[in-house]
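Appendix B. Worked example

We walk through a single record from start to finish. Start with the input: the chain for hydroxymethylglutaryl-CoA reductase (NADPH), Halorientalis persicus, length 539.
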Amino acid sequence: MVVPKPDSGILNRLYANLVGGSGVVSLDVPEKVLKRLYTYGSLTNTDDGVRFEVKNRLQDAEFGGLERLEINGDEVMPSDVTLETSEGETYGLTEVDEDDPLGFPVGRTVYVTVAELELPTGDHDIEIDFVAHPFGSLSLSVTDTIRDEETVPSVPRDEADNYSEAAIDERHEYLAERTDTDIEHIAEYSVDPQELEGNIENFVGVAQMPMGLAGPLKVNGEHADGEYPIPLATTEGTLVASYSRGMKALNLSGGVKATVVDDRMNRAPVFVFEDARTARDFRDWVFDHYDTVREKAEETSSVAELVEIEDYLTNNLAFLRFDFKTGDAAGQNMVGKATFAACNWILSEFPGYVENFYLEGNFATDKKHSQVNDMMTRGKRVTAEATIPEEVFTHHLGADPESLVHHGEVANLGSMLAGANTNGAHPANGLAALYIATGQDEANVAESSAALVNATLLEDNSVHVSVTIPSLIVATYGGGTGLPTQNEALEMLDCDGAGNVNKFAEIAAGVVLAGELSLASAISASDWVTSHEELGRNR
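Next comes the structure step. The output line below is what the pipeline stores for this chain.
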């Protein structure tokens, strides 16, 4: 089988991998690329025959037919093979050829069924020669396993409707049999399970987290302007009371001034090269074609806006951090899709040789604190600030301004010594409670809690306090924000739906400042433990 030499970038790369000097296909290197098409663990026996899945994880293409399919060395007749797309379209293999190809865009799954074949449990070798435009003839060789499903424990699920009352009841029975647990409270819920598809799998009930109201908090922002009752979902005694105390102090001082200073959500693919010089030349080529890269990325969304590509080169690797504005959505999935489209174009057109590519090189850094987030922003970069008069400290917070500022200076050294992600007292506390109440992705507290707190003693013994959150990841649209309970909490803040994300970001930053002010004052006044004894569940 001879592969003609192509002209454009990714084809040159595949050609270099596939074809040796004699023009004969080499199966050693292309397997690393082509194996990404096969979905491991998909090989299974069905009533219609043996089935496995292939999914396009590489680049938009067209499937032009099968030249050879062997399972365990036995050739399969094309007339025995059926193809079903993830959209439910079904084709006989003999219906698909180079003149009548099957569209195979990125993200599409095709289920391949071989009729009247049943395989025993264990490993099985699958070899496929196929035609894919624009690549030509390709070969794929994989080994997959059929497991004895009866020996693999699994939670009951209904493939037809996994959110039906029957499916939920079956899982309740499963829990009762397996754990001897009566889920009296978990199973009580007011939401329609059918509304939860896309937010939860194998639904059994709800976690009833207590929710309290703090505040209200007066916010003087560019988007949030008013007094807002703050819903906080938590099981920690004193938390709502502490945040309310901080909010009252801010209100007595005229409110909190909040400013969104930057907005970007990131995805950071990594490209692997033979050497550092090629990585540098690749980076320069991408920047030379920035306008087209941006166009390809933004074609995937009506909202995503590429604002910058950061470059970080190390060894023979090029990390490119794509930064987007994402409207009212947090945007992690949105920017993943947009970046993938941009990278597909880059790989198609770059004239050099790319050894490997991964959509995420762990540099974004998603749901992890990092210095690059602190410096370059992930989500919203927000500052909340206020000037607290001396009388508010003494009469409301019970703290001495000079003592509070000195404690902050000492705590800064403690944070540095510990290698903490914040010099604040507890930014994660209020954010986690607010996130759970309003349907945010709670794992993003990992980045969002990395706050920078500052307190400056002024000449009149008042204190200017401020907090900057460089990676505040919030949304008012999409994800869990549209679920009934969470949407009600956002309605309390007048932040539900599109057009409100910056308002919500300003409020969230004000919540963090209130918590820092309250706890710092309690520690400075040696009142921290006594408050927990009075309001919490200390033992």
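Two observations about the output. The radius of gyration is 28 Å. The chain has 15 helices and 20 strands.
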